Amino acid sequence: MKFKKFGTRSGFSVSPVSIGAMRFPADAVEAVKLIRAAIDRGMVYIDTSRGYGESEFVLGRALKDGYREKVILSSKCSPWIKKIQDSDDGSADSVFHRIQETILRLDVEYLDFYQVWNIDSPEAWKTAVRKGGMVDGIRRAMTEGMVRHTGFTTHEKPENLLRYLNDAEWAEIILVTWNLLNRDYADVLTKAHKLGIGTIVMNPCGGGRLAEASPVFAELAREVGAVSVPDLAIRYVYSNPDIDTMLCGMTCKDDIDNSLASVARGKFTAAQMKRINTLLDGKTKGKVCTACNYCMPCPAGINIPGMMHMAFQSRYYGFESAMRREYAGCRVKADVCTKCRQCEKKCTQKISIVKELKIIHEELGQ
Description:
The protein folds into two domains: about 5-275, NADP-dependent oxidoreductase domain (TIM Barrel), CATH 3.20.20.100; about 305-365, no CATH class. It has 15 helices and ten strands. It has helices at about 30-40, 55-60, 90-105, 120-130, 135-145, 160-165, 185-195, 215-225, 230-240, 255-265, 270-285, 305-315, 320-330, 340-345, 355-365; strands at about 5, 15, 15-20, 45, 70-75, 110-120, 145-155, 175, 200, 245-250. Strand 8 (about 175), helix 7 and strand 9 (about 200) form a beta-alpha-beta unit. The strands form two sheets. The chain has an eight-stranded parallel β-barrel with strand order 3-4-5-6-7-8-9-10, surrounded by six helices. Strands 1-2 form a two-stranded antiparallel ribbon. The chain starts with a strand and ends with a helix.
């Protein structure tokens, strides 16, 4: 694999595909074999977390016998995602303690990166960057040689992130979602790239959604010469010049082989990318739910944004079977709507929600 600069702030270079450490096999022996196989194939960046079950322990075993020296090792935490102790409050002291614990769990001398995990609101950003907050705790660990670099992961609104980046001189890497189904962070990736921040993408295959049957994406893959929809998804991410690496969630050897095979087939041409983006742009025109949640709460208990998301995925992207399964698992179905229309009064996109809910139940409740 060809390596590229991991931004300009960190000084590292990375391969296009990296190791996402959230979904290793339950069998530790198999997990260690899988991790080492990925490293042997050229994957160097590893993203784990104190919140990923036994991930840190398993990685610690896999990185013995000289493997630690071959990788860029990163972990992360935040109290709003997972509290280990009641004292986890986002203070510098609490984060420093979590870093000490992670180093013990991984059984390593230092971490290449330690990140603030999932900045997802202005409150989370303030907790991270305030004096005596999370970033200060990570800086202390850096001073003491326990951590060498830092950054953050995020699901925050793109418009907020574009502001945060102006004041994020401490951040050397950023991890966001970007794929065929979610291109919301395109401007964030562009700005981070220009600032020299290393850019990482999670869920290149839409969290597994793009492995589901979809006649829409199957036809698009055929048009642009991809061998499958997952191949289309991986190469689409690989073709974005603002992305340095993407995380591959690994549960079996095929996950490694298929991801690397897609990268080996190369990036899409400008014409191919235009065809893909034209189709995607066409699907998002008109009155589409933006998941702003202004319509919530629903007096009848319906998850209205969730229903709209399922309808969109089914109608426009062809994930009918997957969405029927998802709808079947909903505790509150769309047909309990009382037609109070409180949601419609608050909808920023002026969607006829009551009518849509009726259609959704007819389409997905079969």
